[in-house]
Design goal:
By secondary structure, this protein is of the alpha+beta class. It is built from 9 helices and 10 strands. It is about 45% helix and about 20% strand.
């Protein structure tokens, strides 16, 4: 295995290219269960027929767990947006259309989104009253079983040289309510500082999916609270500031 070429460095992992293979090597202290869970998620999503890099093997590299999958040559949607700002709105449409294609799928063996969110809210740095309120709101939201990516943003879409888009990183995939997945994407745009794209994204998603904007917004405090248990201090502060926002303009 040739690991000379680094593609990306992420929290707790380094991603390499080895010919036509992509090797994601996790830190030595990374949870084995989480690595195997991510690989299983990706294998299950492969079976839905969505365009994703296929898993080739799960192995160990120098005592560290690694997931090996197909290498897709191309540029991420985030890179394309940065390189050609005039086409940004067009790329946002591509993003939304791809997300809707994900939400059309079913994958009964994936973890349930509401269960995952409930666990995360329980461990969030919030007082008991706020946690109770969020749990109550979460329980009151409609139960769906659509495939949800959980981290759907332009850097997780790679457009191959032939123009075909592939969706990367299925470690957060669950089955549940598509509007929760959309709320997560909206907050990711905010976290990156691109508030204009956040608003355009939400308008596009609601228009194309025939979803009331207020319905997606109802998910935002719940999603923000559940996401606040990871990430750096600045991200946590930002996400927790959304938790108290019950009504939106």
């Amino acid at each position: 295995m040739n690991l000379d070429r680094v593609i990306a460095v992420r929290n707790n992992k380094i991603i390499y290219r080895d010919g036509d293979r992509c090797v994601k090597v996790f830190d030595a202290n990374y949870s084995k269960a989480d690595v195997l869970s991510e690989a299983l998620n990706q294998a299950r999503i492969e079976e839905t027929g969505l365009n994703i890099p296929k898993i080739l093997e799960v192995t160990m590299v120098d005592g560290k767990w690694a997931i090996v999958s197909e290498y897709i040559k191309g540029k991420t949607l985030a890179q394309l947006m940065e390189e050609d700002g005039e086409k940004k709105d067009e790329y946002l449409k591509v993003l939304v259309n791809l997300q809707l294609s994900v939400h059309e799928k079913k994958c009964p063996l994936l973890n349930k989104l509401k269960d995952k969110m409930s666990r995360k809210i329980a461990s969030a740095e919030l007082d008991a009253t706020t946690r109770y309120d969020l749990h109550t709101r979460l329980e009151g939201m409609p139960k769906h079983d659509k495939v949800c990516h959980g981290d759907f943003n332009p850097s997780n879409i790679i457009v191959a040289e032939d123009g075909v888009p592939y969706i990367l990183d299925w470690s957060h995939a669950t089955q549940g309510n598509a509007s929760a997945d959309a709320a997560r994407t909206y907050l990711l745009f905010w976290l990156s500082g691109d508030i204009d794209s956040a608003k355009k994204y939400l308008d596009l998603f609601c228009q194309k999916s025939n979803t009331a904007k207020q319905y997606v917004q109802k998910w935002m405090p719940i999603v923000a609270a559940s996401q606040s248990v990871k990430g750096n201090e600045k991200e946590r502060e930002f996400l927790l500031s959304w938790v108290d926002v019950v009504d939106y303009e």
